[in-house]
Amino acid sequence: MKNTINQFVMVSEESWQQLISKLDAIESSLGTKASRSPIGEYLTEKEAKQVLGKSTTWFWNKRKSRELRGKKSGNVWYYKIRDLQKFIENGVSN
Predict the structure, then answer these.
(1) For the chain, what are the domain ranges?
(2) Mean pLDDT across the stretch 13-26?
(3) Backbone angles phi, psi at 32, to 5 degrees
(4) pTM of the entire structure?
């Protein structure tokens, strides 16, 4: 059983607005990609890096610690948009 710890983070209004903007970008991406792609509920790691402003290493660490699930096809990692939204809603961390 995994221990769950609730954490609260205080952020400035500017940071909060940046997080909301990123969430809007994911939701917008979901709307346009869902209509054109069978993998509409996923973003590639490249797209997710742009939205979250994080590095490849950050994604690797999150997969390794099982905080973020991903699927790999060929050389490309895919992440559920819903999972990425949770990171934004909870405050993207290191």
Answers:
(1) 14-89
(2) 76
(3) -80, -40
(4) 0.58
